[in-house]
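Query structure, 1001 C-alpha cells:
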C-alpha cells in the first residue's frame, strides 16, 4: 500500500490514547503517517506477507518485518493488527521513536495488571497468563531506533513466551547477521518493492485515475516499487505531468540512505550514476581510477541500493537514487566523468568497434567541452545510423537532433537534416519532418549543390508528401536538361541512379548507400526483381566495406525478397542471414521485422503452426499493426479458415488501410463472387506495392464469374511476369507463382493442354522453393486438368496425394475442393442435358436425342433441384419463389435492383473501353430482367397478386410436362416411366424419386 505507520502504530494502542511518537529523522516514515491520516487506503501487493503474519498470530512467536524506509512495513503491521483485533486478539502496539527507556513502560500501561520491566520473569509469566485467555499481540515499530534496553526486553520476551500464544511483531530495516533481534530465533519477513502491476494499481488509488502503461513503467523504474516513492512521484506526476522530477521528501529520504554509507562508497556510486541506471564494473573502474575488485567491494557495501545480476551487471534499485547522485555532481565533474566513460567504452576489449554506439554518443554529448566537437559529432552520427543493441527510433531521432546542434559544415547539415526527416517520417511524425525538410531544401539551393538538391527531392518523394515538382527541378540541375512530361517515378529512378554513379566515381560510400537504397525503393514493383537483387547485392558490399551493420541487415532483407520473387531457392540463405543479423543487433525494429519474415517463410513452406506462433510473438513487438493484420489474414486464407476470416474482417477494418481488397479475395476464394465483382468494378486506386495482389484477385474473379473479357484482361496483365512470383507489400504477401494463375485461366477457357503444362510449371516453381501450400494448389489444378483430358488414373492418384498432404498441413479449402472434383468424376446413372442444339437423354443404357422444348427445360430445372419444391410460376418465368401473396417480395425486388445497378456499371465501363460485345451482352441481360419485372407488376408498377398468375402457371407447366412425357413414351419408355413416377406437378412442382439417381445435367 505505502510505507509508513498506520493509525494503530503511530499511537501506542487503543487503550492509551494521546501518547505520541516524537518526531524523528526519517521523513519517509513521518510523511507516510501524515498521508495515512488523510483517509484509509487499501493494502496493495502484500497479500502473501499479510497471510503469513495472520497465521503466525494464531500460534504465537516472533516475526520481524524488514525492509527499507517507505517500503510499507508500518502499513503492513497496521493492517495485520487491525485484522487481529477483529479476530479477537488483544493488541498492544508502540513505536521506538520515544526517548530512551520509555518504550516498554508506555506500551505495558495499555495492558492492565502487567508488571513493569524490572521483573522480566514476572512480566513474561503475566503475558503468558493473558495469552491463555485470548491471543496476545505485541508490536513494536521502528526497532532500528530502539535503545539496547528495549531490544533486550524484546528478545527476552521472545525467548520466554515462544510456547504461548504471545506474538511479538517488530518492524525494522535489515537487522544484519549480528543483530540481537535474531538471537530469539524469530522469523524474518523481508518486504521488497512492488511489481509493475501493483505500482499501477497504487497510482490509480492515489490519483483516482488509471495511468497508462508508459507512465506506470516510468514511476516503477524510478521508485523501484517503493510504495512511499510511488505515492510521492505519482502526486508530482498528477499535478505537474512530470515523470522525471523528484519531490523534496523523496530526495531527503535518499540523502538519509546515502549518509549512512562510507564516503568511498558514495564516491563510486556517484561515478556509477553517470553511466545510467545500469552499468558494468569494468566500465566504472576507469571513471574512478580504482581496480575492479575494489569497485566490487564498495558496491557490495551498497547492495541495498543496488541489484547485481548473474552476469555481474549492476543496476540502481531505485531510479531516484541514481537521479539524486547525478544531480549532486558538480558540472565540471559530471563532464569529466562522461568523457572518461567515452574513453572506457573505446578502450575496453569487446566493447570497441561500435557495439554500443548509443551509450558512447550519450556520454560524448554530455562531456561538453571535455571532448573535441568533431569527435562528439562523429559519435552522434554513428549512433544515429547504427541499429544499436537497444536503439529505438526515438533514440535515433534524439542523436540526430543533438548532432544538428554541433554541425558547422552546411553540406553536412543538409545531409544530417534529411536523414532526420526520413527517420521522423518512418515514425509517422510528418508534422515535425516538414519544416525541417524545407529548411534543408532551402539550404541545398543556397549552396547551389545539385547532388544535395537531388537528395532532398528523393527524400521528399519517398515520404508521404512526395510529388514531381522538386524531382523535375533536381533532374534539371543534375542533367542540365528539362524533364519534359516524365512521370515522377521515372525521374526519381534516374536521379537515384545518377547519385549512385557519382558516388562510385568519388568513392563516397555514404552517398552510394543512399543512392542504391533510394533507387531500390523507387523502382520497387513487379518485373524489377532482377535489378533490385543486383542493387541489394551492391548495397551489402558497401555495408561490409564500411562496417555498417544496419545497412547490411537492410540489404539482406531486400535481397531475399527479390530472390524469392525470381523463384531462386537461395532466398532462404539471405533470409537466414538477415534474421541472424537482426537478432544479433537486438534492435527492436529489426527484431520485429525478423519475426515477421520468419512467419512469412514458415507460412510459405507450410509450417502453419510455427507461422502462427511467430505472429502471436509479433503482437508484443514494435511492428506496424496493419502489417501484422495482413500476415494474420494471409495465414488464415492459406488454410481456408473462412469462419475465422469472417470475424477477422469485422474487427480489423479500422487498423488496415485496404480492407475491401482483402475482403474481396477472401470472398471469391470462399465461393462468393459478388463482393469481389463489385470491388473490381469500382477500379480502386492502389499503391504499387499492392498490384500483385490486385492481379491475383482479377484472375480469381475472372474464373469464378466465367467472364471471358475479364479473363482476357487478367491474362494480358499477368503474361509479362511469367516465371515470377506475385510478391506484394515489399515481401509481406506472397500470392503464388504467376504460372499458377495463368494455368487457372487456361483451365477456365477449357484449354486443357495449356492448363496441364501451366500447372506443372507452377508446381515446379513451388517445389523449387519448398512452398508446399502453393505446390498443393498447383497439383489440385493439375489433377482437375488431367481428369478433364481423360487421364483418369494420373488425375485420381494426384488427388489422393493432395488429400494426404493437405490433411497433414491443414489446408481445409483444398480438402473441400478435392471432394468436389471427385464427386464430379463419378459416372452418372443418367443424363439429361442440352448440348446446344438438341437434348441428350440417357437411362438404362439407352440414349436418345430430342429437339428443344419448354417441357424439357421444366424437367431439367426440377432434376437440378431434386427434392425441392419449385413454384410453377418460376418455371413459367414470371417471378421468383413466392414468400407472400405477391409475385415479388421485398427481397426479390432488392435483388433485381442490385443486379440492374451492376449491369449499368458494366455497360458504362465497357462503353468507355470500347468493348461493344460486352456492353451488348450486359444490355441484353438488363432487358430480360426488365421484362420479368414487367410481367410481375401491374398498373403503375404495383406488384401483381399471385392468385391469377399462380393458376395460369400451374396449368401451363403441367400441360407442357405431360406433353413431353407423352413424346418420351414412344422414344424412351423407361425414362418416361421414371419421370412420371417421380415428378409432381401443380402450383409447386418437384422431382422426388423413390430411388436416387446420379444425373449428368
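Result returned for the query:
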Amino acid at each position: 500500500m505505502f510505507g509508513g505507520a498506520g493509525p494503530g502504530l503511530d499511537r501506542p494502542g487503543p487503550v492509551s490514547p494521546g501518547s505520541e511518537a516524537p518526531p524523528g529523522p526519517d521523513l519517509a516514515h513521518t510523511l507516510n503517517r501524515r498521508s495515512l491520516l488523510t483517509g484509509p487506503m487499501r493494502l496493495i501487493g502484500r497479500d502473501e506477507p499479510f497471510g503469513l503474519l495472520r497465521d503466525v498470530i494464531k500460534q504465537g512467536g516472533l516475526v520481524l518485518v524488514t525492509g527499507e524506509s517507505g517500503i510499507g512495513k508500518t502499513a503492513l503491521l497496521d493492517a495485520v493488527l487491525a485484522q487481529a483485533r477483529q479476530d479477537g486478539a488483544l493488541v498492544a502496539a508502540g513505536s521506538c521513536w520515544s526517548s530512551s527507556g520509555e518504550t516498554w513502560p508506555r506500551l505495558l500501561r495499555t495492558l492492565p495488571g502487567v508488571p513493569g520491566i524490572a521483573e522480566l520473569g514476572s512480566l513474561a509469566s503475566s503475558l503468558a497468563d493473558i495469552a491463555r485467555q485470548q491471543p496476545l499481540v505485541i508490536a513494536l515499530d521502528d526497532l532500528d531506533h530502539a535503545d539496547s534496553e528495549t531490544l533486550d526486553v524484546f528478545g527476552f520476551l521472545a525467548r520466554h513466551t515462544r510456547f504461548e500464544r504471545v506474538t511479538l511483531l517488530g518492524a525494522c530495516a535489515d537487522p544484519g547477521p549480528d543483530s540481537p533481534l535474531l538471537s530469539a530465533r524469530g522469523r524474518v519477513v523481508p518486504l521488497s518493492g512492488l511489481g509493475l502491476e501493483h505500482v499501477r494499481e497504487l497510482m490509480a488509488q492515489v490519483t483516482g485515475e488509471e495511468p497508462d502503461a508508459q507512465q506506470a513503467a516510468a514511476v516503477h523504474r524510478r521508485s523501484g516499487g517503493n510504495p512511499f516513492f510511488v505515492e510521492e512521484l505519482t502526486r508530482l506526476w498528477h499535478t505537474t505531468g512530470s515523470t522525471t522530477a523528484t519531490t523534496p521528501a523523496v530526495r531527503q529520504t535518499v540523502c538519509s540512505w546515502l549518509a549512512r554509507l562510507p564516503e568511498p562508497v558514495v564516491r563510486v556510486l556517484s561515478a556509477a550514476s553517470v553511466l545510467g541506471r545500469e552499468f558494468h564494473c569494468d566500465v566504472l573502474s576507469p571513471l574512478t581510477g580504482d581496480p575492479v575488485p575494489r569497485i566490487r567491494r564498495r558496491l557490495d557495501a551498497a547492495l541495498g541500493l543496488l541489484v547485481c545480476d548473474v552476469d555481474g551487471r549492476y543496476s540502481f534499485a531505485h531510479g531516484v537514487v541514481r537521479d539524486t547522485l547525478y544531480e549532486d555532481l558538480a558540472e565540471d565533474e559530471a563532464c569529466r566523468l562522461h568523457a572518461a566513460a567515452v574513453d572506457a567504452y573505446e578502450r575496453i576489449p569487446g566493447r570497441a568497434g561500435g557495439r554500443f554506439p548509443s551509450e558512447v554518443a550519450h556520454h560524448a554529448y554530455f562531456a561538453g567541452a571535455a571532448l573535441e566537437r568533431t569527435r562528439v559529432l562523429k559519435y552522434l552520427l554513428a549512433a544515429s545510423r547504427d541499429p544499436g543493441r537497444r536503439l529505438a527510433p526515438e533514440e535515433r531521432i534524439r542523436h540526430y537532433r543533438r548532432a544538428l546542434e554541433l554541425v558547422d559544415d552546411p553540406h553536412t547539415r543538409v545531409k544530417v537534416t534529411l536523414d532526420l526527416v526520413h527517420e521522423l517520417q518512418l515514425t509517422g511524425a510528418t508534422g515535425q519532418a516538414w519544416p525541417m525538410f524545407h529548411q534543408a531544401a532551402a539550404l541545398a539551393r543556397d549552396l547551389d549543390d545539385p547532388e544535395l538538391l537531388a537528395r532532398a527531392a528523393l527524400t521528399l518523394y519517398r515520404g508521404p508528401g512526395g510529388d514531381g515538382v522538386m524531382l523535375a527541378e533536381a533532374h534539371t540541375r543534375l542533367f542540365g536538361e528539362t524533364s519534359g512530361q516524365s512521370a515522377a517515378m521515372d525521374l526519381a529512378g534516374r536521379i537515384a541512379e545518377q547519385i549512385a554513379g557519382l558516388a562510385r566515381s568519388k568513392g563516397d560510400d555514404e552517398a552510394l548507400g543512399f543512392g542504391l537504397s533510394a533507387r531500390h525503393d523507387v523502382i520497387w514493383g513487379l518485373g524489377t526483381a532482377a535489378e533490385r537483387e543486383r542493387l541489394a547485392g551492391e548495397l551489402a558490399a558497401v555495408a561490409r566495406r564500411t562496417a555498417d551493420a544496419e545497412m547490411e541487415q537492410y540489404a539482406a532483407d531486400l535481397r531475399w525478397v527479390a530472390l524469392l520473387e525470381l523463384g531462386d531457392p537461395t532466398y532462404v540463405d539471405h533470409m537466414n542471414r538477415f534474421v541472424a543479423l537482426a537478432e544479433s543487433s537486438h534492435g527492436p525494429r529489426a527484431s520485429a521485422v525478423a519475426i515477421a519474415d520468419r512467419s512469412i517463410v514458415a507460412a510459405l513452406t507450410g509450417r502453419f503452426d510455427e507461422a502462427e506462433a511467430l505472429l502471436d510473438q509479433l503482437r508484443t513487438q514494435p511492428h506496424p499493426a496493419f502489417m501484422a493484420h495482413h500476415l494474420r489474414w494471409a495465414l488464415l486464407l492459406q488454410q481456408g479458415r473462412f469462419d475465422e476470416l469472417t470475424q477477422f474482417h469485422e474487427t480489423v477494418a479500422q487498423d488496415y488501410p485496404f480492407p475491401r481488397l482483402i475482403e474481396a479475395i477472401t470472398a471469391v476464394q470462399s465461393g462468393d463472387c459478388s463482393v469481389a465483382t463489385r470491388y473490381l468494378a469500382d477500379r480502386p486506386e492502389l499503391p504499387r506495392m499492392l498490384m500483385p495482389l490486385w492481379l491475383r484477385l482479377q484472375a480469381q474473379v475472372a474464373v469464378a464469374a466465367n467472364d471471358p473479357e475479364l479473363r482476357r484482361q487478367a491474362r494480358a496483365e499477368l503474361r509479362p511476369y511469367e516465371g515470377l512470383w506475385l510478391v506484394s507489400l515489399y515481401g509481406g504477401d506472397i500470392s503464388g507463382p504467376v504460372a499458377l494463375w495463368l494455368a487457372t485461366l487456361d483451365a477456365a477457357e477449357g484449354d486443357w493442354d495449356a492448363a496441364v503444362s501451366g500447372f506443372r510449371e507452377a508446381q515446379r516453381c513451388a517445389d523449387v522453393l519448398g512452398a508446399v501450400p502453393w505446390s498443393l494448389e498447383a497439383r489440385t489444378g493439375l489433377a482437375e486438368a488431367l481428369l478433364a483430358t481423360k487421364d483418369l488414373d494420373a488425375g485420381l492418384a494426384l488427388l489422393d496425394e493432395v488429400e494426404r498432404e493437405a490433411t497433414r498441413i491443414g489446408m481445409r479449402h483444398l480438402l473441400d475442393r478435392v471432394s468436389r472434383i471427385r464427386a464430379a468424376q463419378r459416372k452418372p446413372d443418367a443424363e439429361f442435358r442440352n448440348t446446344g442444339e438438341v437434348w441428350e437423354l440417357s437411362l438404362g443404357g439407352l440414349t436418345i436425342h430430342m429437339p428443344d422444348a419448354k417441357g424439357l427445360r421444366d424437367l431439367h430445372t426440377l432434376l437440378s433441384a431434386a427434392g425441392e419444391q419449385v413454384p410453377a410460376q418460376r418455371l413459367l418465368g414470371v417471378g421468383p419463389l413466392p414468400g407472400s401473396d405477391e409475385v415479388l417480395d421485398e427481397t426479390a425486388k432488392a435483388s433485381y435492383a442490385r443486379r440492374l445497378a451492376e449491369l449499368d456499371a458494366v455497360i458504362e465501363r465497357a462503353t468507355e473501353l470500347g468493348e461493344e460485345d460486352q456492353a451488348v451482352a450486359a444490355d441484353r441481360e438488363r432487358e430480360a430482367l426488365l421484362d420479368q419485372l414487367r410481367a410481375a407488376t401491374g398498373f403503375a408498377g404495383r406488384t401483381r397478386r399471385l392468385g391469377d398468375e399462380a393458376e395460369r402457371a400451374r396449368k401451363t407447366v403441367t400441360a407442357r410436362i405431360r406433353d413431353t412425357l407423352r413424346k418420351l413414351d414412344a422414344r424412351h419408355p423407361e425414362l418416361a416411366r421414371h419421370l412420371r413416377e417421380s415428378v409432381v406437378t401443380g402450383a409447386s412442382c418437384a422431382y422426388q424419386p423413390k430411388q436416387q439417381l446420379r444425373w449428368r445435367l
